[in-house]
Fold:
Amino acid sequence: QSNLSSLCTAVPFEYQRGMKHAYYSCIQYIDHLVGQLIGALQEEGLYEQTTIIFWGDHGTLAAAAVVAAAA
Structure:
């Protein structure tokens, strides 16, 4: 099957699809946890005086590890 959604040909399409599924699942889980955090802060009256900071990478190292594993 032709993979028109990615320029990466080193990783098979089915594997890329699984990677995307896992990535989106992680995002959904983080969204759920942030919702719980905000709810708890609101319940305790701390939401208005709290700053929530997210810190993360853009996944370059994860993709490099996958390409190395596929080689």
The helical segments are 13-43, 60-70. The chain has a mean pLDDT of 80.
